[in-house]
Design goal:
This protein is an alpha/beta fold. The chain has helices at 14-23, 35-42, 54-62, 97-107, 126-139, 177-187, 200-231, 235-242, 282-308, 337-346, 374-380, 395-401; strands spanning 5-8, 28-31, 66-68, 79-82, 115-118, 148-151, 170-174, 194-196, 317-321, 350-354, 362-363, 366-367, 383-386, 405-407, 418-419.
């Protein structure tokens, strides 16, 4: 049975898009080569923690959503959106392997007049220099003439109940004006506002700017956190005061590290073509360096607090609270909790954890003991470290029960705990 839309890649990008499309009445098929994702979705479960709930998946299925592993389905749609993952490689550049595989699978079955959209996080220039040639070579069709091609950066904010898919403006940049309008017609069915960029590279660079804006500003407050601690200044009170300024300031808050799927991207890693030198974003590189140091800074604070109370890290019982990258979600993507736990284990600490959203947690492929009773675990631990503030945590009660509490999120009342 034909569908209006094929979402290629049923991960943290593709599933929310498919959900929004089904809710808008768009006949949607979801393609993924991973048989586990197909089996989970077909059974009414979510294959990606923190993305959709089981009830969300069941509503999608009842609304006509069809997961599949059959690439033949890609040749029966009017619109195809590539949502393949682009993880960081060992050299900290984006790995386009999955994007290439998805593009080739689509190209082999691409029909004239199809609108092809790329939402994966990529370097500026990728749509034209990488995806376009694969589509044309695999299909024998010409982009901009036989089919439409455009880029649209994903703007997902998992767990945000205020800004959802429908009321978050969608940026699009097409290869030609006709490509842009075709993309706008599609996204106009899913969202209230469509913003047209001049072209694919401008749309791709929008994602770079938005992601790096977050990382650079987090790096600023992370540096401020270290400085304020050394000077005996309450940074959290400083931020509270600063955010009353009605212009020229946006509040960011420090933490034990930066997690999530939006990794900082330096377009200078790969020039647009062989004749154009790259232009590294020095501020982004410095911000990444600062943010990468935060787990180690947390460890230093842990060691100092234990020493001040006559204890050593070696042999200390340390309870980590919240091991996800974002509050009230199960997603652990790039959570700093992994590095904090690893460093503490290397120093000889006995690690335990508690997280209402994570029932099983492993570090270096070893299971970490999970606390059943939060208060009992905190009272028996030499040090409790709040890494993520989930709403279910009663921090006032926890501050009373814990022998020693380090709050890396500034969530406890002033004076109730040691804050980052």
């Amino acid at each position: 049975m034909p569908a209006d839309l094929a979402v290629i890649g049923l991960g943290h990008l593709g599933l929310p898009l498919a959900q929004a499309a089904v809710a808008a009445g768009v006949q949607t098929v979801g393609y993924d080569t991973d048989p586990r994702a197909y089996a989970e979705l077909s059974a009414g479960h979510t294959p990606v923690e923190g993305s959709l709930t089981a009830s969300d998946v069941r509503r999608m299925l009842s609304g006509g959503f069809r997961p599949t592993t059959d690439p033949a389905e890609l040749g029966r749609v009017r619109t195809a959106v590539i949502c393949a993952p682009t993880p960081l490689g060992a050299d900290r550049t984006l790995d386009l392997t999955a994007v290439g595989e998805a593009t080739r699978a689509l190209a082999a079955r691409l029909r004239p007049h199809t609108t092809v959209l790329l939402e994966s996080a990529v370097r500026p220039g990728t749509t034209e220099s990488y995806v376009l040639p694969l589509l044309e070579e695999g299909s024998g069709l010409r982009a901009g003439r036989d089919f439409h091609l455009a880029y649209s950066p994903s703007r997902l904010d998992p767990g945000n109940r205020t800004h959802v898919y429908t009321n978050t403006p969608k940026v699009i940049g097409g290869l030609t004006p006709a490509c842009t309008e075709s993309a706008a017609a599609f996204y106009g069915r899913l969202t209230d506002k469509v913003v047209r960029a001049r072209g694919p590279r401008e749309a791709e660079m929008t994602k770079v700017l938005e992601t790096n804006f977050r990382h650079v500003n987090i790096a600023l407050v992370n540096e401020m956190a270290v400085l304020c601690h050394d000077l005996g200044v309450d940074l959290w009170d400083v931020i509270r005061c600063a955010e009353t300024k009605p212009f020229g300031f946006q509040p960011f808050r420090p933490g034990p590290g930066v997690g999530g799927h939006g990794v900082p991207v330096d377009p200078g890693c790969l020039p647009y073509n062989g004749r154009t030198p790259g232009h590294p974003l020095r501020m982004v590189s410095l911000a990444q360096e600062i943010n990468d140091r935060m787990p180690q800074y947390v460890i230093q604070r842990c060691a100092t607090l234990l020493n001040e109370h006559g204890k050593s890290v070696r042999g200390a019982r340390v309870l980590l609270l919240g091991v996800t990258y974002k509050p009230d979600l199960a997603d652990q993507e790039a959570s700093p909790a992994q590095e904090v736990a690893t460093r503490l284990m290397d120093m000889g600490a006995q690690i335990g954890y508690h997280d209402p959203h994570v029932l099983d947690w492993r570090v270096r492929d070893l299971p970490v003991p999970r606390a059943d009773s939060l208060y009992e675990a905190a009272s028996s631990a030499d040090l409790t470290v709040l890494l993520q503030h989930h709403r279910t945590y009663d921090l006032q009660g926890l501050a009373v029960k814990a022998q020693l509490l380090l709050d890396t999120r500034g969530a406890t009342p002033a004076g109730a705990a040691h804050r980052l």
